[in-house]
Design goal:
The chain has 547 residues and is of the alpha/beta class. It has 18 helices and 20 strands. The strands form five sheets. Strands 1, 2, 3, 4, 5, 6, 17 and 18 form an eight-stranded mixed beta sheet that branches. The chain has a five-stranded parallel beta sheet with strand order 7-16-8-9-12, covered by helices on one side. Strands 13-14-15 form a three-stranded antiparallel beta sheet, with no helix packed on it. Helix 11 packs antiparallel against helix 12 and helix 16 packs parallel to helix 18. Bound molecules: flavin-adenine dinucleotide. The site of flavin-adenine dinucleotide has 37 residues, from helix 2, helix 3 and helix 16. Flavin-adenine dinucleotide binds next to helix 2, helix 3 and helix 16.
């Protein structure tokens, strides 16, 4: 029940923002510049989103830090110094806190505040957000910056409550850290988080069992301390580089566009090209070796096989190497991991890979994990099992309108959005990097900035034209969803059972969620829609007096 003190005096805002990560923080900054009254609500006890929650050993970005950073302020990008090629989680969190102080964002962030419901009232043209403690917030516009990878998923294993040891999820890591020294540890899951933490846990633990259902491709990050010369060159070229990034599919500049098909060159040339990328480190650069690695299976097979052979060359035990070499999806069609000594870790005496594809986990017992084949006694279990991606955070909020529209019903068969930015039937509610946007397939901060800029421009446009309501037409929404799927179907992405299609969540509708047509094409489409008077959107004036 709402507490009376809150209920009697709802806070009145122009724009309410859900989430205090990179998206929510940039939205505060950008909307304030329009003179709007804004406030962000964050469930966590600190800002930073992903980088606040994911404190597991080895957590770091897999896009180089000089790219994976805000571009909206040249002073900021010039003054900040990244100590390593790929920033660690503490470093990125320090950066986010610096940004919040530098741009005085904290005064408009309310921490420890989870939004439970969001209701649009058609009569007053306002959203009311209600917090877990019953506080009501009213706002003309609402921005969901609740994150794509912010709803950790612990599989519903039988017996989990009976385990006598400790368990952790990578996305809800204790702030004080976990000491694995001398312990028998089990890591369940070998996606990006598992791949990052496994080499470090292996060094501390007495014994490590890795429970793998699906092997993922991982490439060497080649992380290293930042070279001064590289940093100053990059900084000198920043404005041009950021502009160039906007013309690339992944929103990352600096990689020459591929010009050839993998099938147009000899095997020798191809392997030399892949070898050079392997040595250079980084995932985008590998996928950018040829034009057709993500659209032509035969071309992709060459890159996948090269990576599989690398794994076979590193991992000494043949059976383990074959289990680690992915064969069920083309390279790049699931999130491509970057690692430091991941495959080498399986050569250690204290590490064992357990194949839970052939012998699935049946239950968690008092002592550890029981598979169809054996029971593994453990002191600690780490779930690196990922997130209810892309729709999880929005589905956890009860979002509805006075007309009877309910987001959970509207999305029953899979998420429907126009541009990933808005949902038909839910006026004045914007989503940052939602399903249908290219966000998760890009350097996400670039997508966040582009989305928030688009949203801010739309709100500004409404204000300047004495309008106060915007919503996409059902037709525009369904055409966009059709386009997102058609583009995905023209690539190899649908061949993978990935979180892009919700495959990691039992019962989740199997729909391809991200737009994989490229950030460059997406941005052009967004700009074109604006230049055509917000094509596909209905803009209207609800009240005589406009806020
Ligand atoms: C381990 C990991 C590594 C990553 N590495 C990269 C990388 O290298 N490059 C890259 O481009 N991207 C990476 N990502 C993606 C990353 O999520 C984005 O880059 C970016 O941080 C997203 O920012 P955001 O603000 O949109 O969402 P988030 O950072 O997820 O923030 C959303 C916030 O909303 C809050 N929230 C959610 N629901 C509610 C609610 N109902 N009420 C109140 N608050 C709520 C959450 O607590 C969270 O703090 C990574 C993700 C993970 C998990």
């Amino acid at each position: 029940m709402p507490d009376a003190s809150h209920a009697s005096s709802p806070r009145q805002l122009d724009v309410a923002i859900v989430g205090g990560g990179l998206g929510g923080l940039y939205a505060i900054h950008r909307l304030r510049k329009l003179g709007l009254k804004v406030r962000a609500y964050e469930a966590g006890s600190g800002i930073g989103g992903t980088w606040f929650w994911n404190r597991y050993p080895g957590a770091r970005c897999d896009v180089e830090s000089l790219e994976y950073s805000y571009s909206f302020s040249d002073e900021l990008q010039q003054e900040w110094k990244w100590p390593e090629r790929y920033g660690t989680q503490p470093e990125i969190l320090k950066y986010i806190n610096h940004v919040a102080d530098r741009f005085d964002l904290r005064r408009d962030v309310q921490l420890n505040t989870r939004i439970k419901t969001a209701t649009f009232d058609g009569a007053t043209n306002e959203w009311t957000l209600r917090t877990e403690s019953g506080e009501d917030i009213r706002a003309r516009y609402c921005i969901m910056a609740a994150g794509n990878l912010s709803t950790p998923r612990v599989p519903n294993f039988k017996g989990i409550g009976s385990f006598k040891g400790k368990w952790y999820h990578s996305g809800l890591w204790p702030h004080e850290g976990v000491d694995f020294t001398g312990l028998r540890v089990g890591v369940i899951g070998t996606g990006s988080s598992g791949v990052q933490m496994i080499p470090l846990i292996a060094r501390q633990a007495k014994h490590l069992h890795v429970f793998q259902r699906t092997a993922n491709f991982s490439l060497p990050a080649r992380n290293a301390p930042m070279e001064e010369e590289r940093e100053s060159r990059h900084k000198a070229e920043y404005p041009a580089r950021r502009r160039a990034a906007y013309d690339t599919p992944f929103a990352i500049g600096g990689y020459p566009r591929p010009t050839q098909s993998a099938l147009d060159v000899t095997e020798e040339e191809r392997n030399a090209a892949y070898e050079a990328k392997w040595q250079e480190g980084g995932s985008i650069s590998y996928l950018y070796t040829y034009t057709d690695l993500l659209v032509n299976k035969e071309a992709n097979d060459t890159a996948s096989e090269f990576a599989r052979n690398k794994i076979r060359g590193i991992v000494k035990d043949k059976r383990t190497a074959e289990l680690l070499a992915p064969k069920d999806h083309p390279i790049g069609t699931k999130r491509l991991c970057l690692d430091t000594n991941y495959y080498e870790t399986y050569n250690r005496d204290n590490v064992v890979l357990v194949d839970v594809r052939s012998a699935p986990i049946q239950e968690i017992t008092e002592k550890g994990v029981r598979t169809a084949e054996a029971e593994y006694e453990l002191d600690v279990i780490v779930f690196a099992t990922g997130f209810d991606a892309m729709t999880g955070a929005l589905r956890e909020i009860d979002i509805r309108t006075s007309d009877g529209a309910v987001l959970a019903d509207h999305w029953e068969g899979g998420p429907l959005t126009y541009l990933g930015l808005m949902v038909s039937g839910f006026p004045n509610m914007f989503v940052v990097t939602g399903p249908g946007s290219p966000g998760v397939k890009t350097q996400m901060i670039a997508s966040i900035e582009q989305h928030v800029d688009w949203i801010a421009d739309a709100i500004d446009h409404l204000g300047r034209h004495q309008l106060d309501r915007i919503e996409p037409s059902p037709q525009a929404e369904s055409e966009w969803v059709g386009h997102v799927n058609a583009v995905a179907d023209s690539t190899l992405y649908p061949l993978a059972n990935s979180w892009y299609v919700g495959a990691n969540i039992p019962g989740k509708p199997r729909v391809f969620m991200p737009y994989v047509g490229g950030f460059d094409r997406y941005k052009k489409r967004c700009d074109e829609i604006v230049s055509k008077g917000y094509e596909g959107f209905t803009l209207s004036r609800h009240k005589a007096e406009v806020a």
